[in-house]
Write a structure and sequence with these properties.
CATH topology of the largest domain: Jelly Rolls
Number of strands: 14
Protein name: Cupin-like domain-containing protein
CATH architecture of the largest domain: Sandwich
Distance between the termini: 52 Å
Number of domains: 2
CATH superfamily of the largest domain: Cupin
Shape: globular
InterPro entries: Cupin_8, JmjC_dom, RmlC-like_jellyroll
Strand order of the largest sheet: 2-3-12-9-14-7-6-4-5
Organism: Duganella guangzhouensis
Oligomer: single chain
């Protein structure tokens, strides 16, 4: 299917290695970009290019005693990390195990023709493998991203979005990314907001076998999709809110990614606002809902400061623009008081 989807734009990332911080025009972009060879000089990548066993041994050099949340799915799941048929549970189980046990299990199933799925998602590197980033890292300048590791055999993670910007670096194996712009939300048939396989809402459509009778608008999402297949050493910048379906294609795959937000740390996730809107706005009578749509447009989506210019700054309270940390703290306390009434 990927042959009919637009390829993600790409550049040669090798000139960016060792040249200081990654440039802002990449890290602040609103469209995805493949950076070929960006991390090809990482010792972990070099080990993985030699052999799976070399990559395994390299990781073990940094392991101490950390435990990780590991997921397991039967062979019939074909690597797809997903719900059960009723969407009231999942097709995998998870438990906390030692990181070296994950490596043991992956190594034991390297040659199995149809192995079970083993997967460790988004685990903080500095906690799990202290010291690894001393030799395998990137310079983000003033940004202080969260660095995480993902490891497993052949896996398929359904299309989902992340609020932070994301730089995903393939350290071992190959990964296929299929991306959808944020405006394709209605065509992706997204599942529950509050009960998810890994914390984020996911598309219910199986990208490998899309049921276009059940999900007809997904055809339009596919028409707008972009894809790339990355080798060890390549990286992909995924902008905030872009939906991405991620596949680990080999029997042993490692991804290291960096997340950062272009907003202050004290700002809440916009998902909180969505949940509150579902609680208080969505089910209003149509005329009232339309009125509140205008209120949100005026104060939020079209805000440029002019909407509060007539109010003296000391009296603006939550309308202060931009909001600062102290006013955000006051607003959060006000919300909590209202919600707990």
């Amino acid at each position: 299917m990927s042959s009919t989807i637009t390829a993600i734009a790409e550049i040669d990332g090798r000139p960016l290695r060792g040249g200081g911080a990654l440039p802002d025009h990449i890290l602040n972009a609103s469209t995805p970009l493949v950076l070929r060879g960006l991390v090809a000089d990482w010792p972990l990548v070099q080990a993985a290019r030699t052999s799976v066993r070399d990559a395994d041994a390299y990781l073990r050099c940094y392991y101490r005693d950390a435990t990780v949340l590991a997921s397991h799915a039967p062979p019939e799941a074909a690597g797809r990390i997903f719900y059960n048929e009723q969407l009231d549970g999942f097709n995998f189980s998870s438990q906390m195990v030692r990181f070296d046990q994950v490596l043991d299990v992956l190594r034991a199933h390297l040659d199995a023709p149809q192995p079970p799925t083993f997967y460790v998602g988004s685990t903080t590197i500095d906690t799990c493998l202290p010291g690894l980033r001393a030799e395998n890292d990137l310079d983000f300048g003033a940004r202080d991203p969260l660095a995480s590791i993902w490891i497993g055999n052949r896996t398929r993670v359904p299309a989902h979005y992340d609020v932070p910007d994301n730089l995903a670096c393939v350290a071992a194996g190959r990964r296929r990314f299929t991306l959808f712009p944020p405006e394709q939300l209605a065509n992706l048939y997204v599942g529950p907001l509050d009960f998810t396989p890994a914390g984020q809402s996911v598309s219910l459509v199986d990208l490998h076998q899309p049921d276009l009778q059940r999900y007809p608008r997904f055809a339009e999402a596919l028409a707008q999709a972009q894809w790339a297949e990355l080798e060890a050493g390549d990286a992909l910048f995924i902008p905030s809110m872009w939906w991405h379906h991620v596949e680990g294609l080999d029997r042993f795959n490692i991804l290291i990614n960096y997340w950062w937000r272009q907003s202050p740390e004290w700002m809440d996730t916009p998902l909180s606002a969505l949940m509150l809107a579902l609680l208080s706005v969505r089910d209003l009578p149509p005329a009232q809902r339309a009125a509140w749509q205008e209120v949100f447009r005026h104060y939020v989506f079209d805000s440029d400061g002019a909407e509060v210019a007539h109010i003296p700054p000391p009296a603006r309270g939550p309308l202060t623009t931009p909001l600062d940390e102290n006013e955000a703290r006051r607003l959060r306390a006000l919300l909590l008081n209202r919600l707990n009434r």
